[in-house]
């Protein structure tokens, strides 16, 4: 097969995997950041400890995703990041604030700590909102007008809610006692927010983008796509039913299903992501540019592909190792 | 004042990359210093080495975090500020950047977690390995990015087809003419920056009466490392200068303030280069010394800026950045050797302690000045002879760049001030808990 045909598809896939890994991995640690102000003072150190060893590597997936966009689809990188200039700048501001606050908050003078805590939470929220706005702008093909921007803001709130749900699920899995009980409560609230947002975005997406509507509502695609919303609905129902039961079990000291909310949320993210990827493919700038039009020359792509084929499995391997090292509940984490 | 978007894009990118480079400069060599502490502990079982490790690993974590987040900014700005860059040389820049992310970023970021928080969860051997992998990752990262930067300075191993660079030899691309010199120069700069940081902060603790074994170990490590590296750096810098003379004569002419090709050029100690009159004002120099240093002959010929009319970098900025770098280097040499001599004989004198403390961040000044020489010295090109900076610039409106530039500047100033003050605060706090350094510091540090 022709390299000019399949290489862009492979790289679009790699980029999608990187962004999906980013949304799930940095999603839970951004979510913990968003939830931080809700935690009792004494619980905040544990909340941060639960993401401490991971957040650096989690953000690296964003660098890989954007890096792949830059090197594999330079034309699209220019258009997309040019259009998203302001939300990207705000996202970077948020990521910088929370990244440094994470380290400053434990090292700075005591009176400064509340400031760094606030910077951590605000930075996490700002990054999540901006990423949602970027997604919303992207899906409308950067359409002008108040309605398109309203849709983008809606996506922003939706993504922040989804991150909060991921973060709450992560805390349920990684903590115990009073904090875990609270996290179950946060998950219940974030679940409604996320559910409403996913529903609203799903309804608004075909309205906002005729391009996507044309892809959804034709037979047989419509029937093939149907498992995505139905699967998501099933997972939402599962979460809505299991969270109150989980609270009762937790109170009784039974922790066997603590992984369930996080896993179910990851399932929702996977289904939503698959739906979006399907809607967009093979465009990379919706309605303007396909992945083949935007791709770099095959010579550069194949050089990168060889490296990626060797290195990516290694990265996955040692990432799994790092998660195993810090397996289990998060307390008692320290530099010693 | 009206700014054009190209100037704004350059200022914004320059501000971001100047801020960013401060932190990798520390983390590259600090990883190896931490490995050295760890190795000394493994060899001697002297807890003081581990205490030094415990203190410096916190500085490392802080440094690494600021480096990571400011680096994310860079990955976006490559495209937003310089769309023409990828369009023209994407076949070369793309793979090099991708390899940096794949082989270095994930390695360092993942094992950082184990290095920082995993001591009680993995074996000592695994923890040592994690420390090594983090140090190795930072250095691999430097390798790729220096390869790309050097290729932009002295491009090789490619042909241009329809306005796009196509690789003919990856070996020539990666090991282009200036790459080995720049890589060694930068790694040594990182070593010196860390040596003075370790020596300076330890001297600060020493001066406050905090003279435990861990501080002593750190002070000696920093001072001896500095004394060892600074002569190597002078040699490497000289070789790098010769390389520039051969491959980027316009940059060298600007560094030395040579307006007209001349034999037996003087080494200028002071001058005000004047672009309008194409000459120096108030010039003070040592006769023939520049020719002697660069060509190794007292009457060797140095090509002047007149041979590169309209294609040479702004002279004053390059000229003075170069002198600032050399001045800091000379001060480093004197300080490091004096302090090393005193430490060999016993304890450092009070004024030496003050001098070392004052020079805690001197490596930053030299490194920034050096990068200004090489980056401004490459102008008006983004890729020498291939792509001009103006042709690569973005079409993002000036107002948008200006507003985000102001935001970044404000943020960076706050972060820089916070970083420096927190590092000194950590040093004071470590001194207060001399009796139980780890447990007391880490009780509130469940992170």
From TrEMBL, chain A:
<dbReference type="GO" id="GO:0016682">
    <property type="term" value="F:oxidoreductase activity, acting on diphenols and related substances as donors, oxygen as acceptor"/>
</dbReference>
<feature type="transmembrane region" description="Helical">
    <location>
        <begin position="256"/>
        <end position="281"/>
    </location>
</feature>
<feature type="transmembrane region" description="Helical">
    <location>
        <begin position="191"/>
        <end position="210"/>
    </location>
</feature>
<keyword id="KW-0812">Transmembrane</keyword>
<keyword id="KW-1003">Cell membrane</keyword>
<feature type="transmembrane region" description="Helical">
    <location>
        <begin position="301"/>
        <end position="323"/>
    </location>
</feature>
<feature type="transmembrane region" description="Helical">
    <location>
        <begin position="86"/>
        <end position="104"/>
    </location>
</feature>
<keyword id="KW-1133">Transmembrane helix</keyword>
<dbReference type="GO" id="GO:0070069">
    <property type="term" value="C:cytochrome complex"/>
</dbReference>
<feature type="transmembrane region" description="Helical">
    <location>
        <begin position="222"/>
        <end position="244"/>
    </location>
</feature>
<dbReference type="Pfam" id="PF02322">
    <property type="entry name" value="Cyt_bd_oxida_II"/>
</dbReference>
<feature type="transmembrane region" description="Helical">
    <location>
        <begin position="116"/>
        <end position="134"/>
    </location>
</feature>
<protein>
    <submittedName>
        <fullName>Cytochrome bd ubiquinol oxidase subunit II</fullName>
    </submittedName>
</protein>
<dbReference type="GO" id="GO:0005886">
    <property type="term" value="C:plasma membrane"/>
</dbReference>
<dbReference type="InterPro" id="IPR003317">
    <property type="entry name" value="Cyt-d_oxidase_su2"/>
</dbReference>
<comment type="similarity">
    <text>Belongs to the cytochrome ubiquinol oxidase subunit 2 family.</text>
</comment>
<feature type="transmembrane region" description="Helical">
    <location>
        <begin position="146"/>
        <end position="171"/>
    </location>
</feature>
<keyword id="KW-0472">Membrane</keyword>
<dbReference type="GO" id="GO:0019646">
    <property type="term" value="P:aerobic electron transport chain"/>
</dbReference>
<feature type="transmembrane region" description="Helical">
    <location>
        <begin position="6"/>
        <end position="25"/>
    </location>
</feature>
<dbReference type="GO" id="GO:0009055">
    <property type="term" value="F:electron transfer activity"/>
</dbReference>
TrEMBL record, chain B:
<dbReference type="GO" id="GO:0005886">
    <property type="term" value="C:plasma membrane"/>
</dbReference>
<feature type="transmembrane region" description="Helical">
    <location>
        <begin position="20"/>
        <end position="41"/>
    </location>
</feature>
<feature type="transmembrane region" description="Helical">
    <location>
        <begin position="405"/>
        <end position="427"/>
    </location>
</feature>
<feature type="transmembrane region" description="Helical">
    <location>
        <begin position="129"/>
        <end position="152"/>
    </location>
</feature>
<dbReference type="GO" id="GO:0020037">
    <property type="term" value="F:heme binding"/>
</dbReference>
<keyword id="KW-0408">Iron</keyword>
<keyword id="KW-1133">Transmembrane helix</keyword>
<keyword id="KW-0249">Electron transport</keyword>
<feature type="transmembrane region" description="Helical">
    <location>
        <begin position="183"/>
        <end position="206"/>
    </location>
</feature>
<keyword id="KW-0479">Metal-binding</keyword>
<dbReference type="Pfam" id="PF01654">
    <property type="entry name" value="Cyt_bd_oxida_I"/>
</dbReference>
<keyword id="KW-1003">Cell membrane</keyword>
<feature type="transmembrane region" description="Helical">
    <location>
        <begin position="353"/>
        <end position="373"/>
    </location>
</feature>
<keyword id="KW-0813">Transport</keyword>
<dbReference type="GO" id="GO:0046872">
    <property type="term" value="F:metal ion binding"/>
</dbReference>
<dbReference type="InterPro" id="IPR002585">
    <property type="entry name" value="Cyt-d_ubiquinol_oxidase_su_1"/>
</dbReference>
<feature type="transmembrane region" description="Helical">
    <location>
        <begin position="96"/>
        <end position="117"/>
    </location>
</feature>
<keyword id="KW-0472">Membrane</keyword>
<feature type="transmembrane region" description="Helical">
    <location>
        <begin position="53"/>
        <end position="76"/>
    </location>
</feature>
<dbReference type="GO" id="GO:0070069">
    <property type="term" value="C:cytochrome complex"/>
</dbReference>
<dbReference type="GO" id="GO:0019646">
    <property type="term" value="P:aerobic electron transport chain"/>
</dbReference>
<feature type="transmembrane region" description="Helical">
    <location>
        <begin position="320"/>
        <end position="341"/>
    </location>
</feature>
